[in-house]
């Protein structure tokens, strides 16, 4: 810093640059291979659960539905424990909607013995995986 004729300290451009470079950069959220694998597991298991349920195998769809639900909950809890991870207020709503859309085909098959023809079953069983993929892409874009 240099002193001007009035005796006050003036900040020179080199001093300003040095001050700016001493400020640490904002930590970024990092997505690791674990995050990508868990997302693929959630999407695959939830789609398999929906396809099994809409094909008439309601009892067999319970296992992939539980796997998808547990993977989603575990992934979300692991993300929340990380440093500098934002606390999304809407994330619990996303998890609730995902759970409802995940379990709806299984419930409808077990209670009402409802099935869906093949092209319609792709859409109906793809709601939960599509929601999870959209949520994950939203997180990737926001980082």
TrEMBL record:
<feature type="compositionally biased region" description="Polar residues">
    <location>
        <begin position="14"/>
        <end position="24"/>
    </location>
</feature>
<feature type="region of interest" description="Disordered">
    <location>
        <begin position="1"/>
        <end position="24"/>
    </location>
</feature>
<feature type="transmembrane region" description="Helical">
    <location>
        <begin position="122"/>
        <end position="141"/>
    </location>
</feature>
<feature type="transmembrane region" description="Helical">
    <location>
        <begin position="59"/>
        <end position="78"/>
    </location>
</feature>
<feature type="transmembrane region" description="Helical">
    <location>
        <begin position="33"/>
        <end position="53"/>
    </location>
</feature>
<keyword id="KW-0472">Membrane</keyword>
<keyword id="KW-0812">Transmembrane</keyword>
<feature type="transmembrane region" description="Helical">
    <location>
        <begin position="90"/>
        <end position="107"/>
    </location>
</feature>
<keyword id="KW-1133">Transmembrane helix</keyword>
<protein>
    <submittedName>
        <fullName>Uncharacterized protein</fullName>
    </submittedName>
</protein>
């Amino acid at each position: 810093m240099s002193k001007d004729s009035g005796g006050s300290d003036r900040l020179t451009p080199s001093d300003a640059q040095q001050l700016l470079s001493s400020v640490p950069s904002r930590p970024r959220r990092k997505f690791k291979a674990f995050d990508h694998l868990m997302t693929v597991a959630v999407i695959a298991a939830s789609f398999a659960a929906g396809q099994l349920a809409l094909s008439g195998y309601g009892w067999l769809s319970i296992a992939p539905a539980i796997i998808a639900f547990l993977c989603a909950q575990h992934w979300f809890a692991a993300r929340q424990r990380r440093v500098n991870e934002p606390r999304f207020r809407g994330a619990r709503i996303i998890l609730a909607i995902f759970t409802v859309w995940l379990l709806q085909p299984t419930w409808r098959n077990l209670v009402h013995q409802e099935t869906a023809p093949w092209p319609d079953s792709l859409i109906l069983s793809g709601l939960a995986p599509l929601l999870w993929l959209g949520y994950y892409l939203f997180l990737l874009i926001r980082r």
